[in-house]
Design brief:
about 220 residues; Lysozyme
Length: about 220
């Protein structure tokens, strides 16, 4: 099956309707408020990216997550075997199904590498005082397999952690695109650009950014 046909088939199986997404997001109203107070990212902005990502999730996202799970399962088994056999650890990542060791996952559809960059951003800016404040033992490194695996599984299994990383990713995107971290000062064009940057590495507003902004102003 061609990749384009596979994409069409996957898109038929949307995981969340708009109503379901909004109902789930409401469950985390208290946590969204905590994130707003802690990081200065408005609840509405976080709700917007969660809604955008959740209503776009489909069967292909499930397949991507399963590919990553299979990769890390193989990594764990082989690492354990090497320890039992008293062999040195892997100098790099082992091979895996499609060699896929990261995917956008959870309600905010955040990559582990993106989350690690967001964590470093937070610590460098003093938004969080230590890795322990984020429930981590140390500052994670995206080039360390165990760190990447830990963060991916937390994103996949822990909605509150995932939402925190979504908030930090928005804040990092805001500083990158506007040069400042003050959501009260952004123009409509800047907010669209921030939403766009959350979704893609581009310097111009995309349909995603425009659609997200329309949802945002309707909240």
């Amino acid at each position: 099956m061609s990749s384009s046909r596979l994409a069409r088939v996957g898109s038929l199986f949307r995981l969340y309707s708009p109503r379901q997404a909004e109902r789930i997001i409401r469950r985390y109203d208290d946590w969204l408020q905590t994130m707003q107070e802690h990081y200065g990212v408005p609840c509405g902005c976080i709700k917007t990216v969660l809604f955008q990502e959740m209503t776009a999730m489909d069967g292909l996202d499930i397949l991507a997550d399963w590919s990553v799970k299979l990769y890390w399962l193989k990594y764990s088994l082989l690492s354990r075997l090497r320890r039992i056999c008293k062999m040195p650890p892997y100098p790099g990542f082992p091979g895996g199904l499609l060699r896929k060791r990261d995917s956008s996952t959870g309600y905010g559809q955040v990559f582990a590498r993106t989350a690690i960059q967001a964590i470093r951003f937070s610590l460098e800016k003093g938004l969080d005082e230590s890795p322990q404040a984020l429930g981590l033992k140390n500052v994670p490194d995206e080039n360390e397999p165990d760190d990447l695996r830990l963060i991916w599984y937390r994103l996949h299994r822990e909605p509150r952690f995932n939402i925190r990383m979504a908030a930090l990713t928005l804040l990092s995107a805001a500083e990158e695109t506007t040069g400042r971290m003050d959501f009260s000062s952004y123009t409509p064009e800047e907010i669209q650009l921030i939403f766009t940057r959350y979704n893609a590495n581009t310097k111009s507003v995309t349909d995603y950014g425009r659609e997200a902004y329309q949802y945002y102003i309707g909240l």
